[in-house]
Amino acid sequence: MNTPTLVASLIMAAVLAVLIAFFIGRMMRGWQRRAQRQVEMIGMLPGLPDTVGPALIGATRGLYLGSTVARPDSPAATAGSPSWLDRIVAGDLGFRSKAVMTRYPEGIMLQRSGASPLWIPDDCITAIRTERALAGRALTFDGILAIRWKLPSGTEIDTGFRGDDRRELAKWVQEDAA
After folding, report:
1. How far apart are CA 45 and CA 153, in angstroms?
2. Is residue 149 a part of any domain in this protein?
3. Do 160 and 146 touch, CB atoms closer than 8 A?
4. Predicted structure pTM score
5. Which of 60, 82, 145, 149 would bridge 124 by S-S if both were Cys, CB 3.0 to 4.6 A apart?
6. pLDDT tens sequence across 25-52
């Protein structure tokens, strides 16, 4: 390789590295701005209760997919369906993680690895259903458990959970219907 070709290759590599760093920085800045916009809308999450009753549905292992803002009035959504791509990034609600979900008379406990536990009070739950898509994750079957609940700030969100064993999700939907 001659010297002019080597110099041109190094310049191209440097330009490419600068472009990649620029675009990654813009993506991170967009994620931070989105989180700042959502902080006021989300507000404080419900705290963990001091005591809970016996488990109504035992521990279900799976993957916490994230939470999305429930916007049935958005143009992309049909009557009552969630905006499955509008992921919440405020706090640690936007990060996928392994989780164990348990139902108590007082609410639902989502113990997530690498994130704080998420408590969904029973009186805030408006619906529990299965979906094909939520929080940017799409499946070919109804394998995502979507819990629609209202935050103390008044915002309705959908929290997604994909169980390791899809058959266990039927217990959650039946329990909500009862």
Report:
1. 9
2. yes
3. yes
4. 0.77
5. 149
6. 999 998 888 888 888 888 888 889 999 9
